[in-house]
Design brief:
- By secondary structure, the chain is α/β, with parallel strands linked by helices.
- The chain folds into 2 domains: 3-23 and 95-231, HAD superfamily/HAD-like (Rossmann fold, 3-Layer(aba) Sandwich), CATH 3.40.50.1000; 30-91.
- The protein contains 10 helices and 8 strands.
- α8 links the parallel β6 (174-178) and β7.
């Protein structure tokens, strides 16, 4: 199945946020946020740092999942709150992904129900969508929320399952675009078709090997397929 066929068979478009919509940490690097989270963890443990959270960790969301696996609910809440606040700060300097707005606009014009589905904090995503006036194209945001168990983040299908239900669709009617292997794995677990967005060198092979149904290198390619779907309705 090629991109045009995949898009034409769908009724719901699920879109990851960091990557397909914008670069969240473009001006406030993820590694900086990870170091700030380590400071929170050290404070909680009196200066110590669990070996699973050493200096090699540069992904704040992976750190959040590691923290949750420690079974310390108080620490998990502290780190989740710090991560949320850092993402809200990062959004102020996030850079839009070229073609992302075109995709959202074309999906709406073609009659798709569109959801943003992300491991990022809901508050950060809402702030970005308000800033760029993108809420008009989005039916719902399904993302990390306060009190959510971080272990339910993608690659767990939890958020995708919630998104499909929120847009009142069926998994076989949904297509999900994401830029990571965890997105592809989550999509497969949720029973939705996946489009891999290879926005960096090496990602095409990784996303293909993970089982993405289609891999694209520009969001404009998806926007073009959505416009084709609008001009040639088969749904």
């Amino acid at each position: 199945m090629n991109l045009t066929e995949l898009v034409g068979a769908a009724r719901c478009l699920l879109v990851d946020f960091d990557g397909p919509v914008c670069a969240v940490f473009a001006g406030y690097p993820a590694a900086t946020v990870a170091n700030e989270l380590r400071a929170v963890i050290r404070s909680h443990f009196g200066g110590e740092l669990p070996s699973s959270l050493d200096e090699h960790h540069a992904d704040p969301l992976r750190m959040l999942v590691e923290v949750a696996s420690l079974g310390d609910d108080e620490l998990t809440r502290e780190v989740a709150a710090a991560c949320r606040d850092a993402e809200v700060t990062a959004i102020r300097t996030a850079t839009p992904t070229r073609g992302a707005e075109d995709v959202l606009r074309a999906a709406q014009a073609a009659g798709y129900r569109t959801a943003i589905v992300s491991n990022n904090a809901t508050e950060a995503i809402d702030a970005y969508l308000r800033r760029y006036n993108l809420f008009r194209y989005v039916s719902v945001v399904v993302a990390r929320f306060d009190g959510m168990d971080p272990r339910l983040l993608k690659p767990n299908p939890y958020l995708l399952d919630r998104a499909v239900a929120a847009v009142q669709g069926q998994s076989e009617q949904a297509t999900f675009i994401g830029d990571s292997v965890s997105d592809v794995v989550a999509g497969q677990a949720a029973g939705v078709r996946t489009i891999g967005y290879a926005n960096k060198p090496g990602k095409r092979d990784r996303l293909t090997n993970a089982g993405a149904d289609v891999v694209i290198e520009t969001m404009q390619a998806l926007a073009a397929s959505l416009r084709h779907a609008a001009a040639n309705p088969t749904r």
